[in-house]
Amino acid sequence: MAKIFCVANQKGGVGKTTTAVNLAAGLARLDQRVLLVDLDPQGNATMGAGINKATLEKSVYEVLLGMAELAAARVRSESGRFDVLPANRELAGAEVEMVELDNREKRLKDAIASVESDYDFVLIDCPPALSMLTLNGLCAAHGVIIPMQCEYYALEGLSDLVNTIKKVHAKLNPELKIIGLLRVMFDPRMTLSQQVSAQLEQHFGDKVFRTIIPRNVRLAEAPSYGMPGVTFDPASKGAQAYIAFGAEMVDRIKTF
Ligand code: ADP
Ligand code: MG
């Protein structure tokens, strides 16, 4: 059965989507069967996987509202290596529309259950808010991957996320764990980055992934070509780091 991970952090611009898309591509290179779920109305993961969000026939929106089966809404990424449950602006309406539905926190979980045997990994790219959409991600997942930049303010806000995860664990999803903190956009020349990174290791121990994702312009350029960095320039430092992260995840789930 698939292992399901949410990539979450309520801050915007911290590397969630870059992580979700490149981890999907990295895992696919390791012959893992992957479904990438875009849970952000911005549709960045959809576009980053080479899918035009403007011309979707069906999306995660219809799936959450029970108007389409996940199996009918998923599409193949441009590289052909992994599947995507795409999103676009329509999804913003789901927040409000789901309020009236029963089982509203677990709609994504139920949808994923219908295709779970097709995959080794399901990766969910969450929006930058602790919203009903993120709650659906957290209720569907076995683990949370938290990307963070090693800067002073990174630690602020982390406690809100950790508390939300604890509450979801206690009330809605007893399987949920923080699988790890992923250091992203890392600049080893900055003393502050080194210090925050060391603090994270001290405080969170083996909840900090060994792999560190460097700041690398090829990762930032790749989405404009509709490709994950891992596919766009596999030899780049950023791509290599995400491929290594994929291997670390494959290793982690053995004991997860
Ligand atoms: P989020 O999904 O958390 O909002 P994104 O993944 O969209 O964050 O990243 C925010 C911006 O930072 C994007 O422009 C992205 O291309 C860029 N970015 C993310 N990770 C890296 C990295 N390791 N090196 C360079 N740029 C990065
Ligand atoms: Mg994003």
UniProtKB/TrEMBL annotation:
The keyword Coiled coil applies. Gene3D superfamilies: P-loop containing nucleotide triphosphate hydrolases. Residues 91-118 form a coiled coil. Keywords: Coiled coil. Residues 3-178 form the AAA domain. CDD domains: ParAB_family. The lineage of its organism: Bacteria, Pseudomonadati, Pseudomonadota, Betaproteobacteria, Burkholderiales. This is ParA family protein. InterPro entries: AAA_dom, DNA_Partitioning_ATPase, P-loop_NTPase.
